[in-house]
Amino acid sequence: MTDTVVISLERFGEKAAEIAKALDCDFELYDNGVFERSFGKYKNIVALMSAGIAVRGIAPFLNDKWTDPSVVVVSPGFDYAIPVLGGHHGGNNIAKRLECLLGFNPVITTATETHGLPSVEGIAEKKNLEILNKDSTRKVNSAILDNEIPFFEITGPAMVAVTPRVSVLMEKGEYIVGIGCRKGVLKEEITGAVMLAFSEVGICEDDVFVYSTTRIKRNEPGLLEAINDLDGNLVFVDDDSINREKPVSASRASDKLGLSGVAESSALALSRRKEIIMKKHVYGRVTVAIVR
């Protein structure tokens, strides 16, 4: 299975099969359940039908821009490829590929691209990086339209403090490791707990995208030293982002810190897939959860 599907009304089936062959992707004829089946299964949807049919079809399944597939409508005249969803997340690229492969006219509406400028999402894709603080992209992309925005590349170990107007791009890894700990915890307790969690799940340090915790712990020496020893990157997640998540394990953080949790919630806040690989485990004075 590929990450792209062409969905077509039956009357356009022959042309849709040609598009699917050019893109080397799957092909399905339109029916009442086709968009529901395709959401969560594919990263990109090419819809050969009117924009109205496509928009009404996808509307009930929209969640957010970071998890929804891109949707590109190909006009019934077979001349335009129009990203109506997820232009920065694959849609624009699909439209441009259809231009190269089949001569369609791409109708690009994202502001940065229409002005010939890069976007945060485009830079991340080109450099194979993950956008860590996704909410920042709207402000940064808006700033790109007005100014030349600098791009800094930092090799670690390092610590970086940024404002919401700075997008942080990191090398991709699969897992986010959430950590909670008692005040005064030793670095050996942290590293020991993390390594035990790794052994239980069957992963290693190289598989980790980032470590996470609450920003309340930003001055916890043992935690900082442990992540440095693990050659990792630690993100201090703000309270609002943590409290938007719903951990599966009960947490005393709700009473003590006013948070829905620390280990699970901070990791979920940074996760795209929201898939808990290991629920919160308690190792002495340390809690660890693993998410992807």
TrEMBL record:
<feature type="domain" description="CobE/GbiG C-terminal">
    <location>
        <begin position="176"/>
        <end position="290"/>
    </location>
</feature>
<dbReference type="InterPro" id="IPR002750">
    <property type="entry name" value="CobE/GbiG_C"/>
</dbReference>
<keyword id="KW-0378">Hydrolase</keyword>
<dbReference type="InterPro" id="IPR036518">
    <property type="entry name" value="CobE/GbiG_C_sf"/>
</dbReference>
<dbReference type="Pfam" id="PF11760">
    <property type="entry name" value="CbiG_N"/>
</dbReference>
<protein>
    <submittedName>
        <fullName>Cobalt-precorrin 5A hydrolase</fullName>
        <ecNumber>3.7.1.12</ecNumber>
    </submittedName>
</protein>
<feature type="domain" description="Cobalamin synthesis G N-terminal">
    <location>
        <begin position="34"/>
        <end position="113"/>
    </location>
</feature>
<dbReference type="GO" id="GO:0009236">
    <property type="term" value="P:cobalamin biosynthetic process"/>
</dbReference>
<dbReference type="GO" id="GO:0043779">
    <property type="term" value="F:cobalt-precorrin-5A acetaldehyde-lyase activity"/>
</dbReference>
<dbReference type="Pfam" id="PF01890">
    <property type="entry name" value="CbiG_C"/>
</dbReference>
<dbReference type="InterPro" id="IPR052553">
    <property type="entry name" value="CbiG_hydrolase"/>
</dbReference>
<dbReference type="InterPro" id="IPR021744">
    <property type="entry name" value="CbiG_N"/>
</dbReference>
<dbReference type="InterPro" id="IPR038029">
    <property type="entry name" value="GbiG_N_sf"/>
</dbReference>
